[in-house]
Structure formats: C-alpha cells, structure tokens
Amino acid sequence: MGGLLLGSVALWGSSRLDWERPGALVPLALLALAGIAGLIATAGLARRVLGAVLALAGLAAAWLAVAADGGFAPRGLAVAGGLLIVTGGVLVVRHAADLPRLGARYQASNAKPSTDGDPDADLWRALSEGRDPTEGRS
C-alpha cells in the first residue's frame, strides 16, 4: 500500500510542475488514495478487482505522461508515480488474501469456544456467534 501512496504523491507532485500535463493526473492520484481505503475495507474477489483497477489507473497515468509534451523531470515523475501504482495494484491482486482487512478481528470463528460458566461471557459469546443471548432465558 506504500507504493500506492508514493505513486499518488508523485502524480500530484507532477501535476504541480510546469509542463503540458494531462488533466487526468490529479483524479488518478485521488483514485490511488481512495484505493488504499478500499483495499482495507474489502476482501476476496472485490479486493482483487480493485487491485486490477488500480493497476490499470497506473498504466493510464504512465501512458498519459509519456504521450504528453514537456520537460523530462515532470514527465518522469508522473511515469514513476504511474509505475508505483501499477506495482501496488499487481501486488494487491497477487497477495490479496494476505493483506489486513477492516473488522476482521471481530469476525466469529467457526470453532465453538467452551463455556466457562460466566453468564456475562456467555452472553457476549452468543452475540459474537450471531445468536440471541436472551433466547431461552426468563
């Protein structure tokens, strides 16, 4: 995810330099930033699709920079930013299952924990398992 952040900063920085820059660099930089939040919030196939979209956005940014007129430094910075975003997107597609996910800590496991006789713990355990803890109590 660091590559996505660095790529986004590079695209934004390149858009601030004096050259005939394509207007799409800032939106692509913002897409990469939003992609970081999206990667944390998603999992599975959605995360892989988002990684592919980010890789395509990085390719678009690099292509726009190569095709534009202007100095070498601004175009080079934009190409480097695009390639960082491509690399980040490809790594996400490849290692999607290994990345942390928002709220994964709170998912109920398949293993049923043993009851220890503590009524409060039993109530919380039932909630974690998705059951109504008041069911069967009077």
Concise account of the structure shown:
The chain is mostly helical and 138 residues long.
Description:
- By secondary structure, this protein is mostly helical.
- It folds into 2 domains: 2-98; 108-138, no CATH class.
- The protein is built from 5 helices and no strands.
- The longest helix has 24 residues, at 44-67.
- The model has no long low-confidence stretch (mean pLDDT 87).
> pLDDT under 50 segments (min length 5)?
none
Strand content: under 5%
Residues in helix, %: 55-70%
Structural class: mainly alpha
As a whole number of angstroms, the C-alpha radius of gyration is: 23 Å
> Mind describing the biggest β-sheet?
none
- Quote the distance from N terminus to C terminus: 51 Å
Present the secondary structure layout.
Layout: H1 2-16, H2 25-41, H3 44-67, H4 72-94, H5 119-128
Helix pairs in contact: 1-2, 1-4, 2-3, 3-4
What are the key terms here?
2 domains, 5 helices, mainly alpha, Tryptophan-associated transmembrane protein, membrane, 0% strand, 138 residues, rod-shaped
